[in-house]
UniProtKB/TrEMBL annotation:
Its EC number is 2.1.3.3. Belongs to the aspartate/ornithine carbamoyltransferase superfamily. OTCase family. One of its GO terms (molecular function) is amino acid binding. Gene3D superfamilies: Aspartate/ornithine carbamoyltransferase. It catalyses: carbamoyl phosphate + L-ornithine = L-citrulline + phosphate + H(+). Pfam families: OTCace (PF00185), OTCace_N (PF02729). InterPro entries: Asp/Orn_carbamoyltranf_P-bd (IPR006132), Asp/Orn_carbamoylTrfase (IPR006130), Asp/Orn_carbamoylTrfase_sf (IPR036901), Asp_carbamoyltransf_Asp/Orn-bd (IPR006131), Orn/put_carbamltrans (IPR002292). This is Ornithine carbamoyltransferase. Residues 151-303 form the Aspartate/ornithine carbamoyltransferase Asp/Orn-binding domain. Residues 8-145 form the Aspartate/ornithine carbamoyltransferase carbamoyl-P binding domain. It comes from the Bacteria. GO terms for biological process: citrulline biosynthetic process; L-arginine biosynthetic process via ornithine. The lineage of its organism: Bacteria, Pseudomonadati, Pseudomonadota, Gammaproteobacteria, Alteromonadales. PANTHER family: ORNITHINE CARBAMOYLTRANSFERASE, MITOCHONDRIAL (PTHR45753), ORNITHINE TRANSCARBAMYLASE, MITOCHONDRIAL (PTHR45753:SF3).
Length: 311
């Protein structure tokens, strides 16, 4: 059984605003002053088990664990669900015999829940169908670096309602960032998560707008978009291109919203969900987001298994 002092990071849904602020501050401090923290993962091993392929997530975790003095073991599930081979509860129990934490990128959130149930070590969500918490923390780290105090700022997400949208909503509401989500009809976010985000927004004095029309886009500090087809979705692009075309993030939309910067978690498809010229512009934070994946994840790892708090 898992020790009650152990903490998983499957999402930030049950975090407090103060805990969220503290983790963001730790990520910023670790990035700016890594020498203060030494090697908090020295002698520790992290297993990364991935059902889905990855570029940024895999490399940033691998190099980040190394920078913290730890050792990462990568397990490729060969593009198939873990449960097809072995019960995730048993996988978690076995990995806990050797490792200090599990990082997992999976198709279904329930797989993470089952891994955590079996493992008496922390389990970290590196992406599932419902959430992408590491991405959201990295994004708000970048937003803070560019805009300073986040409370009262506005992030507008435009496009397919997905796992990234969910985590941006939750983390943003906890940090006091006003939220706008605009998706085509039929591609909305989870109604359950929307309800939870609305509760967090109310509790933290955050303005929340969820709509299907691009005309509902008001003023925003940052526009955010993601691919129109999530990884593993084999829907022909031609079937959704017409629906999504009005939701392309481009220079015209940036000007309409008065946005200073644009974000995209990547992989990005140039001149589909976002124009290539905007990706390459000075308003683009795409590479800062990618860079910050490692720093955000290092803060999570250092706090969960490295015994680190903000000095």
């Amino acid at each position: 059984m898992k020790d009650n002092t152990m903490q998983d990071l499957l999402s930030f849904s049950d975090w407090s605003p103060q805990s969220m602020q503290n983790l963001l501050a730790l990520a910023l401090d670790l990035k700016q002053y890594p020498e203060k923290y030494g090697k908090p993962l020295a002698g520790k091993s992290v297993v990364a088990i991935f059902e889905k392929p990855s570029l940024r997530t895999r490399v940033s975790f691998d190099i980040g664990v190394n920078k913290l003095g730890g050792h990462l073991v990568y397990v490729d599930s060969q593009g198939s669900p873990l449960k097809d081979r072995e019960d995730p509860v048993d996988v978690g129990a076995n990995l806990a015999c050797w490792a200090d934490a599990i990082v997992s990128r999976v198709y279904e959130h329930q797989t993470l829940v089952d891994l955590a149930k079996g493992a008496n070590i922390p389990v970290i969500n590196a992406l599932c169908d419902l959430y992408h918490p590491c991405q959201a923390l990295a994004d708000y780290l970048g937003m803070h670096e560019k805009l300073g105090e986040l409370k009262g700022k506005t992030m507008a997400y435009i496009g397919d309602g997905n796992n990234v949208t969910h985590s941006l909503l939750i983390v943003g509401a906890l940090l006091g960032v006003n939220q706008t989500v605009i998706t085509p009809k039929g591609f909305e976010i989870s109604s359950k998560i929307a309800k939870h985000a609305a509760k967090l927004a109310y509790e933290n004095g955050v303005d929340l707008t969820i709509a299907n029309s691009i005309e509902e886009l008001g003023q925003a500090d940052i526009l955010y978009t993601d691919t129109w087809l999530s990884m593993g979705d084999d829907t022909p692009l031609s079937e959704i291109k017409e629906k999504f075309a009005p939701f392309q993030v481009n220079e015209r939309l940036m000007k309409k919203a008065g946005a200073s910067y644009v974000m995209h978690c990547q992989p990005a498809h140039r001149d589909l969900e976002i124009t290539g010229s905007l990706m390459d512009s000075e308003q683009s934070l795409l590479m800062l987001q990618a860079e910050n994946r490692m720093h955000a994840q290092n803060a999570i790892l250092a706090s969960l298994i490295g015994g680190v708090t903000l000095a």
